[in-house]
Specification:
This protein has helices at about 5-25, 50, 55-80, 95-105, 110-130, 135-140, 150-160, 160-180. It has about 180 residues and is mostly helical. Pfam families: DUF1706 (PF08020).
Length: about 180
Protein backbone atom coordinates (compact mmCIF):
# COMPACT_ATOMS: atom_id res chain seq x y z
CA UNK A 1 0.00 0.00 0.00
CA UNK A 2 1.39 3.40 -0.98
CA UNK A 3 1.93 5.96 1.76
CA UNK A 4 -1.21 8.13 2.06
CA UNK A 5 -1.06 11.71 0.81
CA UNK A 6 -4.72 12.64 1.33
CA UNK A 7 -7.18 12.39 4.19
CA UNK A 8 -9.25 9.81 2.31
CA UNK A 9 -6.17 7.66 1.69
CA UNK A 10 -5.10 8.01 5.32
CA UNK A 11 -8.52 6.92 6.60
CA UNK A 12 -8.66 4.03 4.13
CA UNK A 13 -5.14 2.83 5.00
CA UNK A 14 -5.76 3.06 8.74
CA UNK A 15 -9.10 1.24 8.59
CA UNK A 16 -7.79 -1.41 6.16
CA UNK A 17 -4.69 -2.21 8.20
CA UNK A 18 -6.65 -2.18 11.46
CA UNK A 19 -9.16 -4.66 10.02
CA UNK A 20 -6.28 -6.88 8.82
CA UNK A 21 -4.76 -6.77 12.29
CA UNK A 22 -8.03 -7.70 14.00
CA UNK A 23 -8.69 -10.48 11.47
CA UNK A 24 -5.21 -11.89 12.06
CA UNK A 25 -5.62 -11.83 15.83
CA UNK A 26 -9.10 -13.34 15.49
CA UNK A 27 -7.78 -16.15 13.30
CA UNK A 28 -5.49 -17.25 16.11
CA UNK A 29 -8.35 -18.28 18.40
CA UNK A 30 -8.91 -17.82 22.10
CA UNK A 31 -5.82 -19.77 23.15
CA UNK A 32 -3.61 -17.17 21.46
CA UNK A 33 -4.27 -14.81 24.37
CA UNK A 34 -2.13 -16.91 26.69
CA UNK A 35 0.52 -18.11 24.26
CA UNK A 36 3.89 -16.38 24.47
CA UNK A 37 5.07 -14.90 21.19
CA UNK A 38 7.62 -17.20 19.55
CA UNK A 39 9.71 -16.07 16.60
CA UNK A 40 11.84 -19.16 16.07
CA UNK A 41 14.62 -21.02 17.82
CA UNK A 42 17.53 -18.71 18.53
CA UNK A 43 15.69 -15.74 17.03
CA UNK A 44 17.32 -12.47 18.06
CA UNK A 45 15.75 -9.50 16.33
CA UNK A 46 17.84 -6.34 16.25
CA UNK A 47 15.08 -4.02 17.45
CA UNK A 48 14.14 -3.93 21.13
CA UNK A 49 10.47 -4.75 20.48
CA UNK A 50 11.31 -8.36 19.61
CA UNK A 51 12.40 -8.97 23.21
CA UNK A 52 9.96 -6.51 24.81
CA UNK A 53 6.63 -7.83 23.53
CA UNK A 54 5.96 -11.21 25.13
CA UNK A 55 2.35 -11.76 23.97
CA UNK A 56 -0.50 -10.28 21.95
CA UNK A 57 -1.53 -8.08 24.89
CA UNK A 58 1.87 -6.37 24.79
CA UNK A 59 1.46 -5.60 21.09
CA UNK A 60 -2.12 -4.32 21.53
CA UNK A 61 -1.31 -2.03 24.45
CA UNK A 62 1.76 -0.70 22.63
CA UNK A 63 -0.47 0.41 19.75
CA UNK A 64 -3.05 1.77 22.20
CA UNK A 65 -0.49 3.88 24.08
CA UNK A 66 0.88 5.38 20.85
CA UNK A 67 -2.69 6.29 19.90
CA UNK A 68 -3.02 8.02 23.26
CA UNK A 69 0.25 9.91 22.65
CA UNK A 70 -1.02 11.19 19.31
CA UNK A 71 -4.42 12.21 20.70
CA UNK A 72 -2.95 14.01 23.72
CA UNK A 73 -0.32 15.77 21.60
CA UNK A 74 -2.81 17.04 19.02
CA UNK A 75 -5.40 18.12 21.59
CA UNK A 76 -2.83 19.90 23.78
CA UNK A 77 -1.33 21.78 20.85
CA UNK A 78 -4.73 22.62 19.38
CA UNK A 79 -5.63 24.12 22.78
CA UNK A 80 -2.64 26.47 22.45
CA UNK A 81 -0.22 24.69 24.79
CA UNK A 82 2.79 23.92 22.59
CA UNK A 83 4.17 20.50 23.48
CA UNK A 84 6.50 18.08 21.70
CA UNK A 85 5.10 14.75 20.56
CA UNK A 86 7.01 12.75 23.13
CA UNK A 87 6.40 13.68 26.77
CA UNK A 88 9.32 14.79 28.93
CA UNK A 89 11.81 13.42 29.71
CA UNK A 90 11.70 11.32 26.51
CA UNK A 91 13.17 12.16 23.12
CA UNK A 92 13.46 10.30 19.84
CA UNK A 93 16.79 8.98 21.14
CA UNK A 94 15.15 7.57 24.30
CA UNK A 95 11.67 6.60 23.12
CA UNK A 96 12.57 2.95 23.71
CA UNK A 97 12.46 3.77 27.43
CA UNK A 98 8.96 5.17 26.93
CA UNK A 99 7.94 1.94 25.21
CA UNK A 100 9.22 0.01 28.23
CA UNK A 101 7.21 2.31 30.52
CA UNK A 102 4.09 1.44 28.50
CA UNK A 103 4.98 -2.26 28.71
CA UNK A 104 5.39 -2.13 32.50
CA UNK A 105 2.15 -0.14 32.90
CA UNK A 106 0.11 -2.89 31.24
CA UNK A 107 1.56 -6.07 32.69
CA UNK A 108 -1.67 -6.65 34.59
CA UNK A 109 -3.98 -5.67 31.73
CA UNK A 110 -6.00 -8.66 30.55
CA UNK A 111 -5.74 -9.71 26.90
CA UNK A 112 -9.44 -8.95 26.27
CA UNK A 113 -9.05 -5.54 27.88
CA UNK A 114 -6.01 -4.78 25.73
CA UNK A 115 -8.05 -5.42 22.59
CA UNK A 116 -10.91 -3.30 23.93
CA UNK A 117 -8.50 -0.43 24.72
CA UNK A 118 -6.96 -0.73 21.26
CA UNK A 119 -10.37 -0.63 19.59
CA UNK A 120 -11.43 2.41 21.59
CA UNK A 121 -8.24 4.35 20.95
CA UNK A 122 -8.32 3.44 17.25
CA UNK A 123 -11.84 4.88 17.05
CA UNK A 124 -10.70 8.03 18.87
CA UNK A 125 -7.75 8.48 16.50
CA UNK A 126 -10.05 8.08 13.50
CA UNK A 127 -12.39 10.72 14.95
CA UNK A 128 -9.38 12.98 15.49
CA UNK A 129 -8.20 12.53 11.89
CA UNK A 130 -11.69 13.29 10.63
CA UNK A 131 -11.55 16.76 12.27
CA UNK A 132 -8.81 17.89 9.89
CA UNK A 133 -8.77 18.82 6.21
CA UNK A 134 -6.36 17.49 3.59
CA UNK A 135 -4.37 20.73 3.85
CA UNK A 136 -4.16 20.53 7.65
CA UNK A 137 -3.05 16.92 7.49
CA UNK A 138 -0.63 17.02 4.57
CA UNK A 139 0.73 20.55 4.11
CA UNK A 140 4.18 20.81 5.59
CA UNK A 141 4.37 23.66 8.08
CA UNK A 142 0.60 24.05 8.35
CA UNK A 143 0.92 23.70 12.13
CA UNK A 144 4.03 25.13 13.74
CA UNK A 145 3.91 22.39 16.39
CA UNK A 146 4.46 19.62 13.83
CA UNK A 147 7.83 21.05 12.87
CA UNK A 148 9.07 19.83 9.50
CA UNK A 149 6.72 16.83 9.52
CA UNK A 150 3.06 16.93 8.53
CA UNK A 151 0.29 16.05 10.96
CA UNK A 152 -0.76 13.36 8.50
CA UNK A 153 2.65 11.74 8.78
CA UNK A 154 2.26 11.46 12.55
CA UNK A 155 -1.21 9.97 12.02
CA UNK A 156 0.12 7.42 9.52
CA UNK A 157 2.86 6.43 11.96
CA UNK A 158 0.35 5.90 14.77
CA UNK A 159 -2.13 3.99 12.61
CA UNK A 160 -1.49 2.15 9.34
CA UNK A 161 2.30 1.97 9.63
CA UNK A 162 2.12 0.82 13.23
CA UNK A 163 -0.60 -1.72 12.40
CA UNK A 164 1.60 -3.05 9.60
CA UNK A 165 4.45 -3.45 12.11
CA UNK A 166 2.15 -5.43 14.43
CA UNK A 167 0.85 -7.60 11.58
CA UNK A 168 4.40 -8.50 10.51
CA UNK A 169 5.36 -9.32 14.09
CA UNK A 170 2.31 -11.53 14.62
CA UNK A 171 2.77 -13.27 11.27
CA UNK A 172 6.39 -14.01 12.22
CA UNK A 173 5.05 -15.62 15.41
CA UNK A 174 2.42 -17.63 13.49
CA UNK A 175 4.97 -18.94 10.95
CA UNK A 176 7.53 -19.84 13.60
CA UNK A 177 4.89 -21.53 15.77
CA UNK A 178 3.65 -23.58 12.79
CA UNK A 179 7.22 -24.77 12.05
CA UNK A 180 7.67 -25.65 15.72
CA UNK A 181 4.49 -27.76 15.87
Amino acid sequence: MARPTTKAQLINAAETEFAKLLDLVGSMGESAASVPLFFGPGFAGKEAHWARDKNLRDVAVHLHEWHRLLIAWVNTNQAGDAQPFLPAPYSWKTYGDLNMEFWRKHQHTAHADSLRLLGESHRQVMELIDRFSDAELFTQGHFAWTGTTTLGSYCISATSSHYDWAIKKIRTHIRASARKA
